[in-house]
Structure to design on (590 residues):
């Protein structure tokens, strides 16, 4: 295993354990709701966002439970968003991570509620005083996660994404939408490490700029995988964006153009990391991983 | 106007202004989402929960922007929950507060997203340092709101409420469900005043116990209004609980039994306030209002 693969596996193991401990047990009169919440969050996933928190926190010497806690909170938000995005009224997806989507497994009402209940849990675990961040840091982490996931972030991007179906969008429109829909949470994941590390403003700004490019690259690679994809590899309904005529990077740029844009983002993003010299190796490897992943 | 009506009108005016300032303006590419969020939260409502925050905070000499801010956050959570509860997959309600429910006015996808985006905004406005609560208080307020609205509170209660359709439930089951579905947020509204006021533990416990009875009384009066109700008065689809065979207090106890239970809750709740002597007049009047309201 490469050093990157080892670091990623360690983060994944820590996140799975933390999430399992933070999520309510499948018990009590609401057992079914708790089961759906666990299904939504513990169902695999690459845990890339927690890895970003861990890698950026480590730049400032912060390790252990604090980045793991923040990563778990992000995965709760990410997991809820997938459950709601998959609903019949939204993307109407049958598959997620190679399994039935949450509403296919638990019914629509329970899926809506499971998503709804994951949100406060994410903010609760950030607000709790049991993971080594002081109260000011916790409040800052909460503001950041809230802005990244709200109407000026992820939720706003999902609305724009729904509008993108059947529309002729230019590259700038798609970039603006993706900056909100997937980019905001990725950017938060990188900036949270700076909050935990009480990083100087220049370092935090460099990480934010790196994350901006990382988020777009992530989405372009997603589009490429969706275009060539099989449900088995991505675990999602394959080719769906094409079917509904959704505006995507690959649709606008073509495959060759999309790959060229990936190269440009890569050069710019890696340049942002120069100020960290050889301490940012893992973040460089993360970028390479994101643009070469097959799932 | 009675003193209670004056106090209530003052809170309502302050809350409307605070909510309007905190909610994003109807502008930008997500204007439609912001419009739906404002529709969900600014559409009237009695603002009883913010009144509870204001009245309990005042017991400890806390007035002004801090209780207003907490009340606004609660109304965002309350508003999102109504939007999601009204969805076709949930209660499938056409009317809310005398107007079309959010998904009837904006479509289902936008309604889901508007609810989703109100949640982080509620936690964001509690986490922000601009309303006079210190960081420890803000973190405590966030933990409290998250627990009250999550799977062990409001969301869990809504799941149990869905299960209640077509089930033969006993009084204890209905009480347990309502303690979560509507009671948890009402209890939080009363306890938040104690957090803002740095109240001694005995005072906070008395308010929590008072709020527990207030929440049940609130729900029983709701059931009575639904039973005898017309859509015009309650602003909701009338008689719906009966139609779907939902277990309710009135269904189990009958109208006379429900009124008797209101009287018992009243006696016990007012007794909890004895320790505050004549400082709790407004809270006593609030209880009387809740059990005699017509909408």
């Amino acid at each position: 295993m490469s050093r990157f693969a080892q670091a990623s596996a360690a983060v994944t193991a820590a996140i799975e354990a933390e999430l399992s401990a933070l999520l309510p047990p499948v018990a009590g009169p609401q057992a079914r709701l708790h089961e759906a919440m666990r299904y939504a969050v513990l169902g695999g996933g690459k845990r890339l966002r927690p890895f970003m928190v861990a890698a950026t926190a480590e730049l400032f010497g912060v390790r252990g439970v604090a980045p793991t806690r923040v990563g778990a909170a992000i995965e709760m938000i990410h997991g809820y968003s997938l459950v709601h995005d998959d609903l019949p009224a939204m993307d109407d997806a049958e598959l997620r991570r190679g399994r039935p989507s949450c509403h296919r497994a638990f019914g629509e009402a329970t899926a809506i509620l499971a998503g709804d209940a994951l949100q406060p849990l994410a903010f609760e675990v950030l607000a709790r005083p049991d993971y080594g961040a002081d109260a000011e840091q916790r409040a800052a982490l909460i503001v950041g996660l809230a802005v990244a996931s709200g109407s000026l972030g992820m939720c706003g991007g999902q609305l724009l994404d729904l509008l993108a179906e059947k529309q002729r969008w230019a590259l700038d429109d798609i970039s603006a939408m993706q900056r909100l829909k997937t980019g905001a949470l990725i950017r938060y994941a990188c900036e949270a490490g700076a909050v935990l590390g009480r990083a100087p403003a220049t370092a935090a700004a460099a990480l934010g700029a790196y994350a901006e490019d990382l988020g777009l690259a992530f989405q372009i690679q997603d589009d490429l995988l969706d275009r060539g994809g099989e449900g088995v590899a991505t675990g999602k309904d394959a080719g769906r964006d094409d079917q509904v005529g959704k505006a995507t990077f690959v649709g606008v740029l073509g495959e060759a153009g999309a790959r060229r844009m990936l190269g440009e983002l890569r050069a710019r993003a890696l340049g942002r990391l120069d100020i960290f010299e050889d301490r940012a190796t893992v973040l460089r490897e993360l970028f390479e991983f994101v643009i070469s992943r097959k799932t």
Q: What stands out?
A: DSSP finds 14 helices and two strands in chain B. The two ends of chain B are 18 Å apart (CA to CA).
